[in-house]
Every structure is written in C-alpha cells, then in structure tokens.
Specification:
The complex is a heterodimer of chains A (512) and B (230).
Chain A lengths: L1 H29 L8 H34 L5 H7 L2 H4 L2 H12 L4 H8 L10 H26 L2 H9 L4 H29 L3 H6 L8 H10 L4 H24 L22 H28 L8 H33 L4 H7 L6 H12 L9 H38 L4 H30 L3 H5 L7 H10 L3 H29 L3
Chain B lengths: L1 E10 L2 E5 L2 E2 L4 E5 L6 H9 L6 E6 L2 E2 L10 E4 L11 H9 L7 H13 L15 H15 L3 E5 L7 H18 L2 E5 L3 H7 L2 E6 L2 E2 L3 E2 H6 L3 H7 L1
Parallel strand pairs in B: 2-11, 4-9, 4-10, 7-8, 8-9
Antiparallel strand pairs in B: 1-2, 1-3, 1-5, 5-6, 10-11, 10-12
Classes of the chains: A mainly alpha (512), B alpha/beta (230).
Chain lengths: 512, 230
Amino acid sequence: MADRALSLSAAGLAAALFALLLAPLVALGLSFDGLTLGAAEAAALRFTLWQAMLSALISVGLAVPVARALARRRFRGRGVLISTLGAPFILPVIVAVLGLLAVFGRAGWVNSSLGALGLPEFTIYGLQGVVLAHVFFNMPLAVRMVLQGWQAIPAERFRLAQSLGFSPADTLRHLEWPMLRAVLPGAALVIFVICLTSFAVALTLGGGPRATTIELAIYQALRFDFDLPTAARLALLQFALCAAAYLLATRLTLPSSFGAGQGRAGGPPAPGGWRRGVDAVAIALAGLFIALPLLAVVLAGLPGLGDLPVQVWQAAGRSLAVAGASTALCISAALLLALAAARGRGWPALAATLPLAASSLVLGTGLFLLLQPYVRPSSLALPVTVVINAALALPFAFRILAPEARSLYSDYNRLSRSLGMTPWARARWVVLPRLSRPLGFAAGLVAALSMGDLGVIALFAGEAEATLPLLVQRLMGAYRMETAASAALLLVALSFALFWAFDQWGRRHAAI
Amino acid sequence: MLQFDTLTLAQGAFRLTADWQAQKGARIALIGPSGAGKSTLLAAIGGFLRPTQGRILWDGQDLTPQDPGARPVTTLFQDQNLFPHLTIAQNLGLGVSPSLRLTPADHARIEAALEQTGLSGFGPRKPAALSGGQQSRAALARALLRDKPLLLLDEPFAALGPALKGEMLGLVTALADRTGATVLMVTHDPQDALRFAPLTCLVANGVAHPPQPTAALLDNPPPALAAYLG
C-alpha cells in the first residue's frame, strides 16, 4: 500500500516533469514559421558546434598529463587538490569570468607579463575567450574523469608490468592507452554537451556576429529584438542539438576490459628523471590555472566588500530565496524518483534525466511564449527561475541519490516491511537517516548551482528582479568593475557557504 | 495450525509446490540442496512472494492477502536483521512499535528482553559495536518482543562458528518453549536438524515434502536427500 502511494506520487511527478518540458516545446512549435536559417542563425550554429568541439578537445587533451601526474605522484596536499578540482562545478560562471578577465584580460596579469617581454597581446574576447573559460570549467572535470580511469586499472596489472620489466612506454601502450581510449571519448562528449548550452560565458566574453552561441542568440532575439519567431526557431534548433547529444550520450557505453583487482594500495609506477619534472610542471600549471582567477576575484573584491550598495544585498536575498526554493523542489523530486527507481522500475530514471535534453534558454523561451500574452514576464521571473533551476539540476541530484536509494531498498526493504513499519515511520527512522549524507551533498550542489545560475533569469528579469549573478553581469556591463568584483566575491562566498552548510548537515546527520 | 493448501510458487522458470499442514508449536527443519526453494517457501509465508496458486493458512485464516507486517510471523533473515544506524534498544523497540513511539512500560519490556538474551547494558550501542553472536541475540530478543506465533529462521546463524550456532539454537529452543511459537528453520546441516527439530521437511525437485520425523528421515533418506547428504 505504501509502495503504491510512492509509485503514484512518483508517476504524477514524472508526468508533471514531462509536461514542464513538453509545454514550452509546443509553444515553440506554434510560433515556428519555417525551417530556413538566416545567415546570423547559421553562424550561431557553426560557432556553437565549433567552440564546443574545441573546448572538449582542449580540456581533455590538457587533462591527460595532469591526471597521469596525479595518479602516479604522492605529495602533500594531493587530496586537497583533487577535491578542489570539483570546485569549478559549483563556481558561479560570472565569478569565473571576472577572475579570467583579471588574469587574461587586456590589463590583466598575463598581458602585463607579455607586454614586458615585448610579446603580442592575448585578446580574451571572442572565440579564444569563450574556449578559455570553458577549459577553465571543464578541464578539472576531465581530470577527475581520467583520474578515475587511471585508478580503475588494478594495481596488480602495474605490478605484473613491473615484474615483466615494462618501460614507461610499454606501460602506456599496454595498460594506459587502452584505458584512455575507453575513457576519453566519453569525457569529451560530456564536455561537448555542456558547452553546447553555454550562455553566460558567451554573453560576457563572446557576442557579435562571430562569437554568438545559439543560447545567446535566443536571448538577443527575445530581449533586444522581441523577435518571437526567430527565438522559437533558434530554441527548437538548440533543443534538437541537445536531444541528439543526449541520445548519443545514452547510447555510448564504454566498456573497459580490465578485470577486477583486489584493491591493493599503490597506483601506477612513478618513474624518476625528467618525467618527474614534467609531472610537477603539469600539476603546478593546472593548480595555478584554477587558483589564479579565484585569487584575482578575492583581491579585487575584498576592498569594496565593506560598502556594497543596497541593491547588491537585495539581489543576494533574492538569490538565496531562489536557491532555497529550487533546492527544496529539486531534492524532494529527486528523492521521490530515486525511491521509486530503487523498486526496479525504469521510468523514474528516464523522467529524472529528461531535463538533460533541454537547456535553460530553451525552456525559458517556451515559458516566455506561453506566459507573455497573459502576464508581464518580469513578474514571474523568480518563480520561473526556481522551477527551471530545479528541473535542470534534477539529473545530477538523482544520480547522487539513486544508487544509495537502491542499496537501501535491497538491504532493508524486507526488514522494514516484516516489522510492519508505516511509510512515515520508514521515512523518519530509515530513509532520512540512511540517506542524509547523499541528500546533504546533493542539496549542496543544487543550492550552489542555483545560487550561481545566470540563464533564464536574464530572459525574464527587469530592474527589480535581478538575482546576484545577473546584477554582477549588469555591473560589468556598466563598467563598474570594482563593485562587480565585490558583488562577485559575495556571490562565490554565498555559493560555497550554501554547499558547505548542506553537505555538513548531511554528514552530521549521517547514520553509521 | 500452519497449512499449505495446494500451494504453488513460481519465480521465472523455478516452481515449488507444497500441500501439507503442521501442528501448532511444531519445530520443523527445511533441508535440501541450494536453490531448491527453502528460502522461497519462507518468503511466501513472510509475505514477500505471492503464490501463483493455492493458499497459506494460519489457524484457518488465509494469509495471502495480508501485508508482511500484518502477518502473525517473525522472520530472521540471513543478514540485515538490524538497522545499523539505530541503537540496539531502538532496533528492539521496532518490534514493539514500528513507529518507535515507546511508553515507559515498553522500555521496561525491552530491557527485560535484553536481559533474557544476555545483552543487559547493550541497549544504547549500535549493532556495529556488537559481535556477530550478540547481533543474532539482539534479533532474537526482538522476535521475543514481537511474540508472533510463527518464527521463520532463514539461516540467520550461517555466519557463526559451530559453538555459537549451537548456543543460538539453544536460545531459539528456549524462546519457542516460552512463547509456544511454531518454528520453521532452513538449514544445510543435518546435525542442526537432529538437535533442534523433531520434524524435517525435505525440499527438492520442486516439491516441499510433508515433514517427517527427523531421525527416521536421516537414517533412511529418500534418493534426493541421499544425493544431497552424499
């Protein structure tokens, strides 16, 4: 009986999700007036694909030496560095852009050094800036994926290789290359898909006819030209791209041919000589590449933190409210679907990953078209942002919760049922205590993502509805860089604090 | 009285039939090769598997439509009998009130059950702080508190050494004597059957045979049992 109540509510939720994704598409379809792409739209499509491909290839290419160095070297702070690689995932895009501008911008640290050496200046605006920012966000992600691949090679294989007298080149050829061939395509595809829907980076570092992504073009068509048919056409194009990438990603299974190991300690062999130096340089450069922009934001933002204008605090309050609401919505939905999926059914997982086929601006444009005949879009800016943030974060939260919910079910369902525990008793005494760690971690991720999100809000918000990321972007646009830097520092502090608070809550209540 | 009325259980291609009855207070060992369906039969009595045909009755009442928690049954599973994040006292408390709303009288009963199973003072600890034998005792203490007329043992002591296992079987015997429970026990070991169960049910070739006196059955085993015993 409890099972049926759970199934029914999960099914209702799945249907609501489906409607949330479908209704905007129908609205887009109704505004659709032909398939021909104008020159500007074709250019946006080309640029979107080109920058996503470059970003994926460069991220993955740079990740390999860093991951190899991390896999085979042991040094103080290695664990901290590996956890720090997860930080860009919850770093607000606009904050990273500010940091990258301070390091790589016209008056930035890199160009000052280049100028002092008499070398030509690096221009951060346009394709190279967009790709640079994407590499900043995704190279750490790629390092983590490739590092996982390295750690998945059983230590016994390396021991056997050493006992057979393999040189580093032999080890690469027989052990590491097969792993890379299995891991790299998947890693590159994930990053390619992420970069397909890039909006905030393109908004701040791209633009113009030669560096506009489809996502940005949708925004410009709606916001500046109020050209609804063009926006709808672009949104459908974007949806087709995402859906194709999503289908490709679900089809692409990458079997690794390594047998299971005994989990003995010890990774790949750590060759000495010049290879030691190469590894040290790889780790140091990667560390600097991540740390310098963040340091720049802190340095630029600290002085002005004391006298931030009141609008910044108001925007921060709105952002916290949005983050809180979308976290509550997203985590409840993810938990319900994960518990339903744990009962061995396939549809909850499908419903939970469906939002991957959509993007912030696609959903936003559809809702904009649906709502604008009846209400002023800006009056719904915050509720729409809450719902879309929750939907887009759902796949991540679900992936964190689903395996834990499954093992909870297989370990304790029979015992709970044989004791006659009611659904409430199970929630209170079994589900929440057993799942509080993944719940806290997932809630932290969702809250930080939502706090830093700069997507659909840009489409809907007027002056009075700006969230903190949007305000930072507007301050940058008005060349109030010092205030922007201080607001950005506040934003990143709040994002990380939210993540930390939820994650700590989960750990503290985790029942062992 | 426990009665299997032309019962058929099916899981995929696997089938098991049973058509017999056992007196109240009987102690029956279920013996037979792995995969023969011993645990499947217990799962059906416990309410975790719907029969494809036939009924399971207790005192003339059909158990089939009842939820697992509503049946007059306590099952000791092979593992995961205790929630690792709850204290031993809370784990026992679930046997008194599944929502853990416990009165002072309930707490006194829990203390008494701990004492009867030699676990005095272990109430505030988590299961991980107990040895395997003590965890089994805690599960038995909860069975004592639930006081259901049917006790199903799905090899809960399989991971214990011979001496501890003997001790647990002794405890089960004492518990069953006190509550008058009917006990069905899955086992791989004919010695367990001889020591604990006056009756033994052979489960082999898709049939759970009517129980027979244990010693006679083991002395003069039918071919399927002889093949299993080797």
